[in-house]
Each structure stands twice: as C-alpha cells, then as structure tokens.
Amino acid sequence: MKYEQLAKDIIENVGGKENVNSVVHCITRLRFKLKDEEKANTEVLKEMDGVVTVMKSAGQYQVVIGNHVPDVYKAVVEVGGLESKGSADEADGGDKGSLLNRFIDMISGIFTPILGVLAASGMIKGFNALFVAIGWLNEEGGTYQILNATGDALFYFLPIILGYSAMKKFGGTPFIGMVIAMALVYPALEGIPGAAEPLYTLFAGTVFESPVYIEFFGIPVILMTYSMSVIPIIVATFFAAKIEKALAKITPNVVKMFFVPMFTLLIIIPLTFIVIGPIATWASQLLGQVTVWVYDLSPIIAGAFLGGFWMVFVMFGLHWGLVPIAFNNVAVSGEDPILALIFVHSFALAAAVLAIWIKTKNETTKTLSPPAFISSIFGVTEPALYGIALPLKRPFIISLISSAVGGAIIGLFGTKIHLLGGLGIFQFPAMIHPEEGLNTAFIGTIIAAAVGMVLSFVLTYFFGGINQKATAAPAAEAASAKEETVITIQNEDIVSPLTGETIALEKIEDTAFASGTLGKGIAVEPTEGKLISPVSGTVSAMFPTNHAIGITTENGAEILMHIGMDTVQLDGKHFTGHVEQGAKVDKGQLLIEFDIPEIKKAGFPLTTPIIITNSGDYKDIAFTETKQIKIGDPLLSLEK
C-alpha cells in the first residue's frame, strides 16, 4: 500500500486509533474528530513528509494532505481499522432530499460496484437469447447451457453480491451480508415448496392465504423465492448492520471475533424469513388481486398501472404476486393479459438509455450505456435500471411514464400473450394469436412499443437532466478521474472565475492555503454567487457538496477553486453544481452557483482561494494587481 507508513504515522500522532471518534475527508484534508486533541502530536504531524500542515477548526482536527487525500484516507481507514465514512458530506448526513431521492441514492450506491459486470452479464443473456431465436443454438445444447449460466449467474445470485455491497454501505461486515443472502437462496429451502405438502395454510380464503411448509421454533415461516430479488437483502443488511454494531459494543473483546457475527446471523436470518418474507409475500399477493380487479374494471387503466409501476414492483419483489397469476392464465386458458401489459417497460428504458448515450458528456456513463441499451432491448433491464436510469432519477421517472403510456395502449388493443418465454424483442412471438395470426392486438403491441420508445427518448433527451449533476457510476468516475494523461505543460493565462475583490493568498485565514504549500495562487472575496470556468479543460475533481472543484486545463495546469472556508460543513446547502466530474468544460462556462447571504448567515467566510496545485511545474506565476475584478478579467499568468 503506497501510503501505509504515512497512515500509520498519522494515526500514531493523532493519539492512536482509540483516540479517534471518526475521520472523514474533504478535497484536501483529513478531518478527525478526536476524543482528546491534547493527545495529538501536532508539531510532529506538521513536520511529517506527506502532511502539509495541521489545523483545528469547527471542532475538527484537520490534517492537510493535498490532492491525494482520498488515497491517504483509504490507507488511514485500513491501517487503523477505522469505520469508513467516505467524504465529509457522506458522513455528516443531514438533509439529503426527499425520501424517494435518498432511497434512489442508496440503491444506486449499492449497485455502483457491480455496474460493469452487471452490464456484461445482461449482454451475454441477450445475445444468448438472440442466438436461440435465429437458430444458431438450441436450449437443450451444452453451448447454450454454459452461456446461459455465464450470463444468468449474477442475476440468480444477485442477493449474495448485494449482501456484500449493501452491508458495506451500511457500515457492517460485508461477509456477514453475503452469508445472510446465501441463506435466502439456499437450495434446500428454496426447493421445499415444490417437494412437500404444506403443514397448514395461514389466512385461508383471504387475499393473504399462505401455505406454511416449515416452522422455526413453532413460528410459521412463509417461504418465497429470493433469487434475483433486491429489496429483501437490502432491508436485511440494513438491520444486520445495526445489530452487529450493537453487539460489538457489549461483547467482550476476547470473543468478539466470532460471537458478534454468530449472533448477528442467528438474529437477522430468522427475522428475514419470518418477517420480511411474509410482508413481501402478502404485498405481492395483494398486488396480484388488485391488478386483476383493475383489469376487469378497465384494461386501459390496468395497462397504465402495471406498465408504469412494473420496474418498481420488480425492485421490491412484488411482481411475484403477478407472475404466478400470469403463468396460471396461460396454462388454463392459453392466454394472459398481465405480462402483455408490462411489455413496453424494457423498450422505454432502452430508449431513455439511448438518449443518455447520445447526449451525456460523462465518459463513464457513455461507456456503460451501449451494453445497457442492448441488454434492455433483449429484456434484461437491470444494467440500465440500476446503473444509469435510477442514479439519474429523471430518466427513471420518464421510463415509468412512457411505459405507462405503452401499457395503456396495449390495454386499449386488448393484447395478450399466448405462450411463455422470451423477454424484450423476443416476447413479440408470444403475442401472435395462434389462430388469427398478426391480428389487431398484435399490431397494437408494435404501436405501443414504438410510442413508448419515442416518448421516452424525447423526454429524456430534452428533460432528463443528463448533464446537470454527477451521474451514474460515481465510483467508476472517481476511478477514471485518477487515470493519468500525459500532457505537455505550456504557458497559460487564466481569467477570474469570480466577481469580487482580490486578496493575496498569504492574507487569508486558512493557513493551509495561505502558506502556499498546496500551491501558489490568489484569493477572491466574491460579491456575486457564480463560479465560472477560468479555462477550457476537464473537471478533475468535483466534491459532492459542490463547494470545491478542480480543473485540469488543456495545457496541463491543475487549478483548485475552494469556495469559502470550512464550507464543506454545509453539506451542499446553498451550493448548486452545474457540471460533473470528468466533464469537458469551456472557458466561461458556469460551474457552480452559491447563495452568498445564506452562507454568510450560516457563519462561514466566503474567501475563495484559486490555487495552481502543480505550481512546481512552472518557472513563474504572475498575479493580477487589480483589486476589484470581474468574471473573465485576467487573473493569473503561468510561465513554463
């Protein structure tokens, strides 16, 4: 580990890990909350190689590192065995928006680590289905079986993968999350309903009628299928992380290593089977009954309802209340309307991803979009849903609306499926009437798919908010931002990104910036709440709270602009970002808007350093002598 020794020295000189309540990082520094700051060896830390300086502010013990602080932070967390809380905005919590937004952020964050392999698996599944459809493979052959296992494995065992990433996000031990998921998809338990007669039936004759095959200490357990599910394991790991932390506080250290995971598993796994399972089962059964009732009332309303909410139902596992009804309809009467009504959702999602693919400036999103689009066309929607549409929020909502319109059209034409099998474009044959052939109902399917796609594409392209904020795959963006590009340093003139009064850097309050150790530069006291790009280049760092941004110019200058002092503690309030990390920007482009009166009202100075963090690459840096400066006025001149 590159920063292992530095991390060890930092932990030792802040008083040891037992003196650390928490540690997070911002764009240049580690922010410790110490139990006793007197135990820290401040002077030793200041003289340490790799440490710029040490500051005490706002109840935090700040060890200033520089641009590579995320890497040092990871080393500190790993070496010290500390809890990883990420960047300051992630750790401090606060108002993160509506409940829906927080839920979407949580889900997309859990899926971020697996986006690449999720997209790859979706493509394999789609192409395998295509090869069968055109006659290259048959479903009985070994080639098909191996390819199917390759593409389907991630989706079937998705709870296990999510058990790891969700538990990690909730601050628990990831392997405990994996074991919880393994219990949920344990083959011996999943196979019981098909191999044995129920012991008895709960709530017989009601919508909540549930056969019981096994009991846990006399408590009935309602078994359901957890493979390919999402929400049950996320809910389970959420509570498991809390249980694990509570047990860790009361368990003696000598037995903590095995007692804490043992009792966490013994508590949460039965609770998941006994509580989460029944709730999901009854909710899905109720959904099935409501859907049948709505379809009998109006196929158009049922189509809009099912089409609009199908992806949401799948996320929560509620679709299992509808799938058995659909299967039974096909088996008994040879046709089913339910699976026909949800047909458009994959095409609407594919069209939204296509619009994102065409319009996005984010390189990671653009890379993920093609496989997500292809797999959605083939009916595998997880890569597009969790990797792209859901994190961006608006395309997800637009996909739901477009799918609802398509479902209503299918309901209007009375379209039904006549056989099971096939997703996406491969579901078209299932809608061909066995006697009437390509009848009006089938034509309605084509119209619905076309309308859903066009509507989704147009709305996403123009109103999807594609380039407004950080988009899909934040973890992948962060990784790609670290990739080194060989640039030849050249002379460069930099204009002011702000309107206000210039201040010599050494006169500002923050000693980390004032000392010049983070780089040479100048500060501006802004009088207008707009920060524009002083150069053309690439956003190399965009802090989630939108209070700081780094840009690497086309000529190799690395510029850091930090709006205000300690404004990271505002958790993004009063700041609005207009670009994303990795985006290409033009000189004069609006980067960030901020509310000067509200920030000052909150007690934070707005003095903004503009730093050349690679000052050592230049022979000379000249500063403007103008006191009152406007956006676009000359500010710095860099001489190679």
Would you mind describing this structure in some detail?
The chain is α+β, with helices and mostly antiparallel strands. It is about 50% helix and about 15% strand. Helix 17 (about 345-360) packs antiparallel against helix 18 (about 365-375) and helix 17 (about 345-360) packs antiparallel against helix 20. It is globular, with a radius of gyration of 28 Å. The two termini are about 35 Å apart.
Please write out the topology.
Layout: H1 4-13, E1 20-25, E2 29-34, H2 42-46, E3 53-57, E4 60-64, H3 69-80, H4 88-92, H5 99-111, H6 115-133, H7 142-156, H8 158-169, H9 174-184, H10 187-190, H11 192-195, E5 200-202, E6 210-212, E7 214-216, E8 219-221, H12 231-250, H13 253-297, H14 299-316, H15 323-333, H16 338-341, H17 345-359, H18 363-377, H19 382-392, H20 394-413, H21 440-463, H22 474-481, E9 492-495, E10 500-504, H23 511-514, E11 520-526, E12 530-532, E13 537-542, E14 548-553, E15 558-562, E16 575-577, E17 584-585, E18 590-594, H24 596-601, E19 608-612, E20 620-623, E21 628-629, E22 634-639
Antiparallel strand pairs: 1-2, 2-4, 3-4, 5-6, 7-8, 9-22, 10-11, 10-21, 11-19, 12-18, 13-14, 13-17, 14-15, 15-19, 16-18, 20-22
Helix pairs in contact: 1-3, 5-8, 5-19, 6-7, 6-18, 6-19, 8-9, 8-12, 9-12, 9-13, 12-13, 13-14, 14-20, 17-18, 17-19, 17-20, 17-21, 18-19, 19-20, 20-21
